[in-house]
Q: What sequence folds into this?
């Protein structure tokens, strides 16, 4: 497969509204480093994390609700990345992605060529404080290609479309983590608040899959 030198991508140029997003067709295709794979993005989801990152909401200096910075962004304190580090512009956002591996870096088995994968968005290093988020500390999936650590590209075999699968990584991994932490099992009853949102609706489905009885709570306007 021939991979072009340039790709289309959406660059976040500063914190703020949609005017901070720049659609370009001359962005260099990333080269997978050792231990990484290059994915041709089939679909990318838009998550609250992407919105919060765009407006600079993750800074500890911000106390307002997210809608307060929807148009102009929020004034942070140099800790506006998801991990608490200073955010680097320009950045390709996009934390949720489904695609296929089209190239591998050194040390990655070449048998992974062509695998259909979902990207686990939280990249963890050997140090527990070494955490990078896909689309925040590193370039994400709002592009034709993305380079990610091979261990965070999980093979998936499913009849679901790329668009459907791209809704899974952030919301479903967060919900699964919470249900695992409480060791929810069949026959138990669980109250899920915010059940109309991405994480909440994922938690409802995953809890029911475990055989639990679900009580879902949503705002009156969403009931």
A:
């Amino acid at each position: 497969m021939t991979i072009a030198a340039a790709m289309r991508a959406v660059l976040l140029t500063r914190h703020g509204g949609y005017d901070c997003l720049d659609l370009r067709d001359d962005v260099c295709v990333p080269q997978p480093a050792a231990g990484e794979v290059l994915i041709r993005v089939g679909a990318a989801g838009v998550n609250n994390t992407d919105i919060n990152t765009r407006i600079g909401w993750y800074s500890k200096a911000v106390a307002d609700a997210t809608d307060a910075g929807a148009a102009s962004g929020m004034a942070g304190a140099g800790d506006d990345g998801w991990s608490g580090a200073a955010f680097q512009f320009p950045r390709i956002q996009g934390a949720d992605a489904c695609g296929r591996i089209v190239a591998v870096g050194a040390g990655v088995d070449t048998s992974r060529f062509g695998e259909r994968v979902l990207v686990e968005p939280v990249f963890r290093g050997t140090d527990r404080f070494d955490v990078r988020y896909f689309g925040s500390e590193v370039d994400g999936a709002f592009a034709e290609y993305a380079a990610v650590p091979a261990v965070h590209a999980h093979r998936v075999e499913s009849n679901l479309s790329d668009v459907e699968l791209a809704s899974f990584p952030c919301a479903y991994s967060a919900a699964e983590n919470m249900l695992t932490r409480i060791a929810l099992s069949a026959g138990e009853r669980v109250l899920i608040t915010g059940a109309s949102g991405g994480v909440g609706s994922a938690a409802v489905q995953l809890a029911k899959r475990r055989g639990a009885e679900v009580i879902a709570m949503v705002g009156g306007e969403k009931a």
